[in-house]
Amino acid sequence: MPLPDTMFCAQQIHIPPELPDILKQFTKAAIRTQPADVLQWSAGYFSALSRGDPLPVKDRIEMPVATQKTDTGLTQGLLKVLHKQCSHKRYVELADLEEKWKNLCLPVENFRALLQLDPCKDKIEWIKFLALGCSMLGGSLNSSMKHLCEILTADPEGGPARIPFETFSYVYRYLSKLDSDILQGDTETYLATLKDTLESRKNGMIGLADFFILKRKV
């Protein structure tokens, strides 16, 4: 192939001054997130960056814990990314949520299977979708609530993972109703006992220690 008539030297090529930092931050984000499809994730990354939206980036690298037979692709870290992207709205459009799901390289069939647990038409309350995602991770109500606390808490990693009791009870009731093996009366008894235990506190927060200690008592 013949060389072009015009040759450019380094002095003739303009490099935007912000480009090196953008590429550096992008590379760090890709390393932390470890996307299964770099091109798909990159499209979502730069699209969010151009709009000034929260980026599809994990806080830290997650070690793989699932086997190929059980791996849905979803992790607590990815759910936390979705929470950062969606929690500013009470309700999220399913089309927008599906796009964010795809940009995290998660299987679309798992997204649709998740919605079948509580079918809706065009939008879903974000906290309910987050709860459904936690149930996919957890496999049991206790594990689902543990994931929820760790995603929603403002406590540092490894801390008590406290969240408001109102949020905890709302999600606990929601997931309990979706489980035919759990009686509504048992749910209300448990939440009432938990509320009594927390009444001495002024902040109305529940942490993992409170939750699991009380679960052993009731």
From TrEMBL:
Query: Has keyword Isomerase?
Result: no
- Which ranges does the record mark as transmembrane? none
Major subcellular site: other
Gene Ontology, cellular component aspect? motile cilium; nucleoplasm; radial spoke
**Domain of life per record:** Eukaryota
Report a single Gene Ontology molecular function. identical protein binding
Subcellular localization, as worded in the UniProt entry = Cell projection, Cilium, Flagellum
* Record's keyword terms, sorted: Cell projection, Cilium, Flagellum
Query: What's a GO biological-process term for it?
Result: flagellated sperm motility
Q: Which family does it belong to?
A: Belongs to the ropporin family.
Protein name per the record: Ropporin-1-like protein
Origin species, per record, is: Mustela putorius furo
* Taxonomic lineage of the native organism: Eukaryota, Metazoa, Chordata, Craniata, Vertebrata
State the gene name recorded for this protein.
Answer: ROPN1L
